[in-house]
Amino acid sequence: YNSGMNLTADVKTDVFSLGIRAEKSLRAGIGKFVPYTGIRYMHLSTGDYTNSLGMHYNTDDINLWLLPVGIKYSADVKNGNWTIRPLAEVGYIWNLGDCDSTQTVSINGISNGFCYDVTDTGSYIARLAVEAEKGSITYGLGYGYQKGDSVKDNQWMASVNWKF
Description:
The chain contains no helices and 13 strands. The chain is an all-beta fold. A hairpin with a 2-residue loop joins strand 11 and strand 12.
């Protein structure tokens, strides 16, 4: 809804992602350190579309390579029938490829394009969490933080998982 008019469009976006990760578990007292590295390819494609005012949009496809490296720590602490699992993680993710994109907007034969950032060239990550497991159910609470050149992200997480 803009300037008293309802704008609509039918936008189709496709995402494809494939990755591999290598990690090695190293015992440390009651816990373990798990250093890891990996590579992930991601393809994002938004097809051309026209909104209800007749404005036509054309966006570049985006191809990204993500290279994470980091280390996780966790420990399993038994308390009766419960297993309490504190978790900590720090790392860095390099982003290579189309970190920016261009979109062209046209109406009535007049067009203009603009560029925008899709992602930073890299970002730091950190996570703290605790899980409580009893039988086939695991409860989790955590906080994650990600910081790049131009953005930062705070994530509060709660989860319930059931294994069957």
